[in-house]
Amino acid sequence: MIDRRALVLIAVCAVGCTGCLRTTTMAPIEMYRLLPPAAVSSAAAAREATDDLPEGSLAVARFVTPGLYGQRGIVYRVGEAGYATYSSREWAMPLGEMLGRRTADVMQAKPLVRGDALFDPRTRRSFMYMWRGTVREFEEIDRGNDVFVAVNLEASLIRIENDSIVWSGGARVERQVPDGTMEGIIAGLSGATDEVLFALLDSARVSIRQKSAHGASSNR
Asked: Which residue, among 36, 60, 78, has the nearest Cα to 201 in the 3D structure?
């Protein structure tokens, strides 16, 4: 990758020329965000029915971003065990916040409750449910000359009143980036993120509907 080659060139320069370091400048910071969720915009007109979903509104919290995922630098992995972050390529906002906002957007097409679903990391007083997520993988993967991206998220739907888990699950997507460019990597991460979020929401909706149907039959 360009960043890593630049580091090698700087090291060579330092060994071969004492005045070289004085003229070397840091690479400018490149800032990135996930691409707009195309799948959501195309599905927004066909918002899924909410008749058999619970009443109430839902707050989407910031995703928990452990370790390197909590830093602004975009994470890359070499092989299966070597992790690092780019020194000059960063997320334009914290990854946990970006994923929380992304989830709230996707929920416009795939609602889990009859009320609103909003990104709200600070207060839970006016909501009946909370969506909590955790990042397990969110990175570029370099395997020889081949470049991939991986997104692995876990999430749970919480009933705030008694802090009980209504549903929990996880999903992972890995896909190859044919050109290996940073633009391709961001596009790959964007598409993989939406694919994972849709899988999580589909799983949650199935569980919620099964519980709702079971509760209705028990009350007869």
From this structure: 60
- Tell me the C-alpha distance between 101 and 98, whole Å: 5
Integer-rounded Cα Rg, in Å, for the chain is: 21
Q: Which residue, chain included where needed, has tokens 């060994």?
A: 15
| Token pair belonging to 4 | 């890593």
Residue corresponding to tokens 């999580």: 200
Using CA atoms of 65, 91, 116, 188 in order, give the dihedral in degrees to the nearest 10. -90
Average pLDDT, rounded, for the chain: 84
113: three-class secondary structure by DSSP: coil
The residue among 220, 83, 92, 57 whose CA lies nearest residue 138 is: 83
Query: Which two tokens mark 157?
Result: 């739907």
pLDDT at 15: 35
Query: Which pTM value belongs to this model?
Result: 0.82
Read off the tokens for 28.
């400018």
> For the chain, where are the alpha helices, taking DSSP H only?
2-16, 20-23, 38-43, 95-106, 182-218
User: Residue 119: CA atoms inside 13 Å, Cβ hemisphere, count?
Assistant: 15
